[in-house]
Design a protein that fits this description.
The protein has 229 residues and is an alpha/beta fold. 46% of the residues lie in helices and 21% in strands.
């Protein structure tokens, strides 16, 4: 059962309902194995910052994600020395299900450690979340959301909304996507007037976006040179 839960999360089924569907169990039957995996620090539950009561699960150790997403499924081929063929057919899976989520977590760690220098206030809470836009009937997933502490005298400030991409050069359309998530948050009572739209990329940025960020202090670009400095 524990391997089934880990396999579900590694395959991208990160909600309680998604894990239940993948494993063929009812949601209430997952409470014990998820609690055990959390207590062992193998799985971490991350609340959705913008939707109360919603959360996602993440495997803490990337090697376990790699094992569940790739090795366990192809073990018979690996045992007969077909590693090169297995790797050639699973590169996309490795990028999407192993490296991508790990890179997102690294970006959130970076925002936590460097946030005071990057943003206009000290970060109080950093995570991910989904922003619903009823007017356009859409939902935008935010990979790195940075919130200031709640101020009793006013609305809570959203210091930054960020998107992370491991193998994709980021451009203006990524910033536009973040802007579409920023505006509905303003309608919900958040302070977003000075929210910084942050792009985290391991592959770099288009020249047009780099030029725009140089003249607009509400656009921030974070590459590997900053993440690993």
């Amino acid at each position: 059962m524990y391997h089934s839960v880990l396999a579900a999360i590694a395959a991208g089924n990160t909600t309680n309902g998604g894990i239940a569907s993948y494993t063929g169990r009812k949601s209430d039957q997952l409470t014990h194995p998820l609690n055990v995996l959390e207590d062992c620090a193998l799985v971490q539950r991350e609340p959705d910052l913008f939707r109360t009561g919603r959360s996602r699960y993440r495997i803490v150790e990337p090697l376990i994600t790699y094992y569940e997403a790739i090795m366990r499924k192809r073990w018979a081929e690996l045992e007969i020395d077909r590693a090169e063929q297995v790797w050639a057919s699973t590169k996309q899976t490795f990028s999407a299900q192993v490296v991508g989520p790990t890179f997102e977590a690294l970006c959130r760690d970076f925002a936590l450690e460097q946030g005071a220098a990057l943003f206009t206030d000290f970060p109080s809470e950093i995570g991910s979340g989904a922003v619903n836009d009823p007017a356009n009937r859409s939902r935008t997933q935010i990979d790195v959301a940075v919130l200031a502490a709640q101020d009793s005298a006013g609305p809570r400030r959203v210091l930054s909304l960020g998107e992370s991409k491991w193998g994709e050069v980021m451009g203006h359309h990524h910033v536009a996507r973040l802007a579409r998530a920023r505006d509905p948050l303003g309608h919900k009572g958040y302070h977003v007037e000075d929210t910084i739209l942050t792009c985290y990329s391991a592959a770099g940025f288009t020249p047009q976006l780099t030029a725009a960020a140089a003249t607009d202090d509400r656009i921030l670009l974070v590459g590997l040179d900053q993440l690993y400095s």
